[in-house]
Amino acid sequence: MRKDIFDTEVSIYNGVRDVYGTTCKLRAFLFDKKHISEVEQLRSLPTKEERNEIKKRLPQACISGVFSPTRKAENLVKHSGFICVDIDRQDNLHIDNWNEVKQGLSKLPQIAYISLSVSGNGYFVILPLRYPDYHKGQFEQLKRDFARMGINIDAACGDVCRMRCLSYDAEPYVNAEAIPYEGYYVEPRSMVNYQYSGNDVLDKVAKCCERIEANGIDITGDYQSWFTIGCALASLGEQGRQFFHVCSSQNQAYNHAESDKKFTNLLRTGKRIGIGSFFEICKDYGITFKNA
């Protein structure tokens, strides 16, 4: 029997000032009706400041997982497999048929839940993810997919530990059979101009990287290989950075900023691994600097 996806554990907090929280099933949070009167009171208030005072006291949940001891991305114990995105009315004033947004989105098989936000002026949408370990990359593609539908989602929702305020919707959309969202955004690969310098070692590295990029070969495989390649290319100094990006960008988990930060760190602290290690790894994949 398939497990009910809403039975997944998530971290919940007793208001925004609670930093430690507890855990509960996602279902218990989403279908909690004990605070309906407070939500209705909040929606009746004229100013955002007044609404926020109540909002701060309402239960909050990290839809994307369980965190311990405190709510920080680095304290993620287990990803729930879900992502929650906000669709605020204020960010989508171009949408004329606002009342039909929920109905339109409910046709997408990847959406598990749609509800009015606590203010009643927007929606929050929950989707299961195919690659929760790549939360940010999936969010970035999700943002682009929604934009193609003419819907702007809150960019802050890419934060894995973002909190969701408890809300109430008399008619939420619920789909326990939602299929995982598979979209994944990969930053555009930096294009390297393979001009040969006359420096024998650099030219050999350039020829290998040209073949790596032309054939889409991922030689980084696992973290240890990626680290070794980084150290080897860092032995070339700053000139190795562009080649590190070429190698790293063949992997689906490539992130330009993270790779750049890694190379900077390796320039400073990298082990004494020479460029020969790079050529050895290339050889394992049938890549050589020699002319065919």
TrEMBL record:
InterPro entries: BT4734-like_N, PriCT_2. Pfam families: BT4734-like_N, PriCT_2. Residues 217-281 form the Primase C-terminal domain. Residues 54-173 form the BT4734-like N-terminal domain. It comes from the Bacteria. This is PriCT-2 domain-containing protein. It comes from Phocaeicola faecium.
